Amino acid sequence: RAFLLENHILFPLYSRFQDPPFFVKAMITAQAFYAVPDVVYRYRCCFQDKPTTWPRAKLHDMMRGHLDNLMLSSQEKLCDLHALTVRRFEASNVFDPVMKSLREKDSQTLNLLIQINAAIDTGLLQQAGMSTTDTDCYLLKEFNELLKEYAANDPSQSKKGARFTHLLRGAIQC
Predict the structure, then answer these.
(1) Distance between first and last Cα of the chain
(2) How far is CA 161 from each of CA 129, 147, 157, rounded to the nearest angstrom?
């Protein structure tokens, strides 16, 4: 307890995904720790309610937790954690509720998604062995899906689609 208080390590005030940022901050600050080869903590995802039924505040908190871990892993050059965070964010239990919220035109979800995408360090992903198609920019699965839906809704608008892609890349700074 003293270690946590002295180093100002607190659980973020999130309704979802508050454990991972807390844990990562504690391990980074500790600088050394023992790992037990047995499973001693298991996170059961979505055992009570489906993320697609969560209130937006819960979804946004989960997104903030992923953003925290991306920023911490980038700052500390933790390539495996960085890649794991991206893979977890693109998993269906996150992807589906994010896409549902985007389709409902929730601007806060879009804003958080832009921040999350901007926090991705492709160099760290490559160090972790994660393949990226672009060395300067990683485009989250959610954005790729939006681009596909945009093109499918109006395939005759290829110039507009290219413009949308350009604007999107500008918004996420890549």
Answers:
(1) 41
(2) 31, 8, 6
71 three-state secondary structure: helix
Average the pLDDT over 7-22 and give the result: 93
Q: Is the distance from CB of 120 to CB of 140 less than 8 angstroms?
A: yes
Tracing tokens 């391990």 back to the chain, one arrives at 27
3-state secondary structure of 161: helix
pLDDT, one tens digit per residue, over 123-162 is 999 999 987 776 667 777 887 777 677 666 665 555 555 6
CB 67 within 8 A of CB 21: no
Is 173 within 8 Å of 118 (Cβ atoms)?
yes
- Tokens standing for 160? 């507009």
Whether the model pTM is above 0.90: no
Cβ-Cβ contacts under 8 Å for 166 (sequence gap 6 or more): none
C-alpha span between 119 and 82 (Å, rounded):
10
Q: Which residues contact 118 (CB under 8 A, 6 or more apart)?
A: 172, 173, 174
Q: CB 129: neighbour CB atoms within 10 A?
A: 9
For the chain, what is the largest distance between any 2 Cα atoms, rounded to a whole number of angstroms?
Answer: 63
**CA pair distance 59, 63, nearest whole angstrom:** 6
